[in-house]
């Protein structure tokens, strides 16, 4: 378990962490999710010991590590741009931490073989980092961080520099890796899809504070406020209430609570159809997400008028009336 209590960090006048308190359970994969500048990296680097907080306490497995150097915290760290040792093979890069700890040769070989298998780089052990793809290089970085059996694995946008397809593959891979090694992992990301996809817990950050902590379902279905609601996925505002676009229902007849709208655009996205709507009463425009089947049944035509209503209103969220 990692505990962060009332941690503050200022850079000059700027408050990067505004008294953050967070518990990270052992064995969890927790994502720190938030917009750029919200303090995610500062919090992660404080846990790592790469930043020293101005106030507050951080413990790892019950030990106060606030004043302890990064080397003594038992952490593995992977950054977006991982600095591999270019002149060393993949095998030697992974073995590095074990060598400087002077582990016996046989143990190093066994551990590195195991890690090469876990990260799927068995066939690449004699290559140099320059001969790897970006995704392979990040997997090597993870193997290197895991080699010394860290108590905690800290990942700062580890897939941030990779293209969307590779990112998606690596997310799935990280999830499986975590299921296998169970090391307490904290992942910084600004990508809500990435957080929802891999994390079992998400802490949503905004302006140096934590807005909400919970499972992906909790946050998506029961967001604590408008910020979490809008950061976790697309929203539409209807009658002053924020809802998810897929919770909007289109109808040709009026039902209580329905709003009259004009169909402005119909965008077919494979199985789903996004229908952009302009309320007749001048409210802000909104998008409904419906299935292709529903769209075909409705036989929607651009410019026609119909009614839209919310079939599900999440949690306690209410947008400011306008
Ligand atoms: N060494 C520093 N000196 C001054 N300001 C800093 C320093 N490090 C971070 N900041 C500022 O603190 C704020 C929080 O930075 P941080 O890197 O924690 O945000 P983040 O949520 O990780 O954002 P990003 O996703 O863009 O990395 C930012 O506004 C940043 O400019």
Automatic annotation (TrEMBL):
SMART domains with a match to the protein in the record: AAA
Cited PROSITE patterns: ABC_TRANSPORTER_1, ABC_TRANSPORTER_2
Listed GO MF terms: ABC-type sulfate transporter activity; ATP binding; ATP hydrolysis activity
Keywords attached to this entry: ATP-binding, Cell membrane, Membrane, Nucleotide-binding, Sulfate transport, Translocase, Transport
InterPro entries associated with the record: AAA+_ATPase (IPR003593), ABC_SmlMolc_Importer (IPR050093), ABC_transporter-like_ATP-bd (IPR003439), ABC_transporter-like_CS (IPR017871), Mo/tungstate-bd_C_term_dom (IPR008995), P-loop_NTPase (IPR027417), Sulph_transpt1 (IPR005666), TOBE-like (IPR024765)
Residue stretches making up the ABC transporter domain: 2-232
Signal peptide positions (record): none
Pfam families for this protein: ABC_tran, TOBE_3
SUPFAM superfamilies attached to this UniProt entry: MOP-like, P-loop containing nucleoside triphosphate hydrolases
Gene Ontology, cellular component aspect: ATP-binding cassette (ABC) transporter complex
PANTHER family in UniProt: SPERMIDINE/PUTRESCINE IMPORT ATP-BINDING PROTEIN POTA, SPERMIDINE_PUTRESCINE IMPORT ATP-BINDING PROTEIN POTA
Protein name per Swiss-Prot or TrEMBL: Sulfate/thiosulfate import ATP-binding protein CysA
Lineage, opening ranks: Bacteria, Bacillati, Actinomycetota, Actinomycetes, Mycobacteriales
Encoding gene, per UniProt annotation: cysA
